[in-house]
Amino acid sequence: MRVALACPYAWDDAGGVQVHVRELSLRLIERGHEVIVIAPARGRATDPHVVRVGRPVDIPYNGSNAPIDPRPWSRRRVREVLAAFGPDVVHAHQPTAPSTGMWATLEARAPVVGTFHSGAGRARLYDLTAPLLRRVARRLVIRIAVSRRAEAFEHARIGGVFEIVPNGVDTQRFASAEPAELPDGRRLLFVGRLDARKGFAVAVRAFAELATTTRDRDLRLIVAGDGPERDAVSVLPPGLRSRVTFLGTVPNTELPSVTAACDVYLGPATGGESFGVVLIEAMAAGLPVVASDTPGYDEVVRDGIDGLLVRPSDPGALAVAAGRVLDDPALAARLAAAGRDRAKAFDWSVVVGRIEGLYERALRAGPPSLP
Asked: Is 228's pLDDT higher than 80?
């Protein structure tokens, strides 16, 4: 099968959607499909099956940054790439965002499968343009949501029937990773963009509460990511600040070894998440997970079974739960073992087969109707 994947976000930026599309493309190629990925990018695409279309514009959205290319002239280039490749199926990610996924949906002459990743709480511009976006969505022969949270967000605006297919994770890559060399001590791990939605400032304050107790004077906070809230550590006294290690943006290919070297994963997102790939990656690596009890995250972590969920935006609650794990080796071991088992449900060996089945359904349904 010839499959064209359209990613709306900058290919060379860190992000869960980009990781998902990259991993999906590689799994499909391994299974004998011919695949191209169409995406905006800041630089040259080094992956041989990736075609850069346009350059991203950084647009604030959902408490974070959306590096999309909304410029309409990119649509013509998408049309040319699709015509030259001649796909059997077009798989557009976030097809209602004004970027590559939307252009591919509008220009496709093959059946279109759309995957929706957003879990925003509010989206005023989306609400205002929903009537127009429903016309775009009518070209989708199959709609996928990565979670019930994403389904609820999209259904309220564009309607339709959704298949729930979660993001995939290469669990074995995390389960078998050799630990990276990091500063000595027990290590809390934070992974993600350092902005308000990801809750980095919450993690910093929770670390401060834990690190000032007698039992945790060797505790460290390892940070894999970058962003506008990097200065959240400025509230820490110098002694504590020196125990925060910034690794910068870590490529997903290098993340398993960092994860394997830590003791507890902190997922303090404040809301707006549709899923929790970082949580699954941590669980696959055997880290006990302490995360916010928010829609999306609660579909990944089952509180008290394979992780602990706490009130969002509450550093004290995050610190108490993380302290429980640090103080109780039996609890840590139980959560780690259950987390590894839970992660298997999201492995690519499961997810890619479900997506292939939906491609077959799309082929039987035929090309899209006119917008």
From this structure: yes
Name the band, by pLDDT with cuts 50, 70 and 90, for residue 128. Answer: low
Q: Which two tokens stand for residue 332?
A: 């840590």
Virtual torsion, Cα 270, 274, 278, 284, nearest 10 deg: 130
Least confident piece of the model among 109-118, 120-129, 204-213: 120-129
pLDDT at 196: 87
Alpha carbons within 13 A on the beta-carbon side of 179 = 11
Domains in the chain, CATH or no CATH each: 2-168+347-365 (3.40.50.2000), 172-344 (3.40.50.2000)
Number of H helices and E strands in the chain, helices first, is 13, 15
The stretches of the chain forming alpha helices (DSSP H) are 16-30, 74-85, 100-107, 124-137, 148-158, 171-175, 200-211, 238-241, 255-260, 277-284, 315-327, 329-343, 348-365
pTM of the model: 0.89
pLDDT band at 92 (very low <50, low <70, confident <90, very high): very high
What distance in Å separates the CA atoms of residue 117 and residue 167, rounded to the nearest whole number? 9
Name beta bridge partners: 268: none
Bridge partners for 57 per DSSP = 68
For residue 324, give every residue at least 6 positions away whose Cβ sits within 8 Å of its Cβ, in sequence order, or none.
Answer: 308, 331
- DSSP readout, 295-310? TTGGGT--BTTTBEEE
**3-class DSSP assignment, residue 163:** strand
**What confidence score (pLDDT) does residue 16 get?**
85
